[in-house]
UniProtKB/TrEMBL annotation:
One of its GO terms (biological process) is regulation of DNA-templated transcription. It comes from Amycolatopsis umgeniensis. This is Putative HicB family RNase H-like nuclease. Gene3D superfamilies: Met repressor-like (1.10.1220.10). It comes from the Bacteria. The lineage of its organism: Bacteria, Bacillati, Actinomycetota, Actinomycetes, Pseudonocardiales.
Length: 52
């Protein structure tokens, strides 16, 4: 499987949200980057489906 190029993307979030996201990634047994990528992809896919 070919790897997709990845780039760094910085965002500013409230400390409590950062803590919750980090804990959620641990609970999901995923790296923070993989977890955030999956959650954003899921959100965008769902939003696109609703728009149809």
């Amino acid at each position: 499987m070919a790897q997709v190029e990845k780039r760094q993307f910085n965002v500013y979030l409230p400390p409590d949200l950062i803590k919750r996201v980090k804990h959620a990634s641990v609970d999901a047994d995923e790296s923070l980057s993989s977890f955030v990528e999956r959650v954003l992809e899921d959100y965008l896919r769902t939003s696109e489906e609703r728009e149809r």
